[in-house]
Amino acid sequence: MRIAIVGATGIVGEMFLRLLEERDFPVTEIIPYASSRSAGETVSFRNEKYPVRDLSPENIEPCELALFSAGADTAMQWARRFVDMGALVVDNSSAFRAIDDVPLVVPEVNPEAIILHKGIIANPNCSTIGLVAVVYPLHHRFNLKSMVITSFQSVSGAGRTALAELQSQIENPSVPAKTFPRRIADNCIPQIGDFLLDGETEEERKFRDESRKIMNAPGIEVAAAAVRVPIKIGHSLSLHARFQKPVTPDEAKNTLANAPGVKLLPENNAYPTPLEAAGRDEIFVGRIRSAQGFANSLNLWIVLDNLRKGAAANAVKIAEFALLDRNWW
Ligand SMILES: NC(=O)c1ccc[n+]([C@@H]2O[C@H](COP(=O)([O-])OP(=O)(O)OC[C@H]3O[C@@H](n4cnc5c(N)ncnc54)[C@H](OP(=O)(O)O)[C@@H]3O)[C@@H](O)[C@H]2O)c1
User: Fold this and answer.
1) From ligand 1's centre to the CA of 12, what distance in Å?
2) Which end of the chain has fewer beta carbons closer than 10 Å to its terminal beta carbon, N or C?
3) Are residues 29 and 89 in the same domain?
4) How does strand 48-51 pair with strand 42-45?
5) Is the CB of 130 inside a 6 Å radius of any atom of ligand 1?
6) Domain count of the chain?
7) Domain limits at 118?
8) Is 268 buried (19+), middle (13-18) or exposed (0-12) by CB count in 10 A?
């Protein structure tokens, strides 16, 4: 297959290239795109160098698959052109996630939505992917009623420039905040994305809108606080989940022991951390315990690599499912 990588110079774009190699995707040619800033640079794939092209009308060529990770504005402007030239587009941005006839997919949760696509499939927000992969099997058995989430999100979630900003602030405390609203080194920032009129941030709203759509559960109550923390890779979530049916920690562990894509740490008091999840495609869950004083409720701790399962690995698995009919779980 000829595969376009749109945003190939970004950290998710680079991860796309590594995952297509690792997963032995049947690639005949890579066509990397980025902004005019990167035109002329090269990216490597299977020991070959490919020149990066400016995303412009004369540079677009037909391909079977276009993996987009270049932000919502770029996706809005360019994704349908690739579809018109015959490509399946899997987009990592928020551009199409809320559109009714665009499937929003975590393959471990709603693979059936993939076949409904009309050329574009949306990859969910990185933290939401970790959330629904764990909570959906529990919902299936115990009927989820509500979720309260606090997320601790790494700096790489905001892209290459953000990582460079953290590094330079670690080396020199006087480097001012540019990508984030405050200095991120030695800090944590309870704002990811812009504030909405009701005081939520965009990131907090995504937890509700996207989890409801993926799980096809519009009535679930969701409240979130999304916090940026000064670590490089790995998003962590503290989840309080309330169910309609009674549930014990052991019953939840039995359910999650076989959940696709989920790595359960079943021992009492065991928990994953971002350092252990980095470089892995599983979504890790531990510290499953009753929420004392709350009926039918559990507290859980979830961690995932935001660049792999939170972005590129989820998108590549969607493409494998859609185009290769690969059964990988
Ligand atoms: N990082 C994560 O954990 C994560 C997780 C899920 C989803 N996402 C989403 O993935 C997308 C990319 O994220 P990232 O972290 O990889 O960001 P990044 O490191 O900043 O990379 C952005 C990429 O987009 C390209 N780009 C920017 N503006 C463009 C334009 N006008 N035309 C063409 N290409 C353009 C950049 O090219 P230049 O190098 O030329 O600037 C670069 O290749 C975003 O939509 C983000 O929300 C990221």
Assistant:
1) 7
2) C
3) yes
4) antiparallel
5) no
6) 2
7) 2-125+311-324
8) exposed
